[in-house]
Amino acid sequence: MAILLLTEKCRPKQIAAEEFFERLHKETEKLFLLKCDAWKLVGIGLGAPNANYYKGTIEQPPNLSWKYVDVVKC
Asked: How many CA atoms lie within 13 A of 27 on its CB side?
């Protein structure tokens, strides 16, 4: 099991959703390049206020500057 921690500069409230997910992708890719033969990615957990599990969206989260994010498309 691996846990990816993002730095203070990459907290979602401070950056646009697209940039956050791009950074998450890059950091995850780096992590798996180090251990690609030993690990298998089975999922990424994401918790957010006003997340809609059925649509894959985050809608008007009170603690983020994002308005509407389609996480599946990011």
From this structure: 14
Strand partners, 57: 52, 70
HEC sequence for the chain: CCCCCCCHHHCHHHCCHHHHHHHHHHHHHHHHHHHCCCCCCCCCCCCCCCEECCCCEEECCCCCCCCEEECCCC
- Signed CA dihedral, 11, 16, 17, 20: sign only: negative
pTM of the model: 0.67
Give average pLDDT by consecutive 10-residue segment, the chain, 74 residues.
52 75 83 73 80 91 87 82
